[in-house]
Amino acid sequence: MLPIDDNEYNEKIKIGTTLKMRFNDVSSEILPVSVSNVIVDDVNGKMAIFVKSNHLTSKFCSARKEKADIIFSSVKGYKIKISAVRIENEQKGVYVVIGKQMFFRKIDVIYEEDDYVVCKIESGSGTLKPFDDVIVKGTDLKNGKTLWVGCNR
Description:
Layout lengths: L1 E3 L13 E5 L7 E11 L6 E6 L5 H4 L7 E3 L6 E4 L4 E3 L2 E8 L2 E6 L2 E4 L3 E4 L13 E2 L19
Antiparallel strand pairs: 1-4, 2-3, 2-5, 3-4, 6-11, 7-8, 8-9, 8-12, 10-11
């Protein structure tokens, strides 16, 4: 049984609905579950849902009371601090450090929160790559600018 405090989900969760759930204290694994029963308190709008799954492992069988996240949608990409995002020539991007220089890398934002964005994983020159060192804050950032490291100028 999972109590849900947010009325916004009352329309999304019905008996027979398949959901994706994560029980963070047990595992980072995302499990498919099926809603087997829904009880809604008409006074306060809260609901309790009962779920079942054929994908439970022994870790889950020993758990009795766990917090769970219901995952309605997900995105795949690079997560970047919002402070790193810049706009150059009407294109969103970030500055990365390669050697002793900084370079602008284009990004295509597919999801945005207050403190971070998620951008598409793309290939090609001028795009963000895995393990690029992203500059998260700074001033006077310019493509090709040489960085000075330490006290030796």
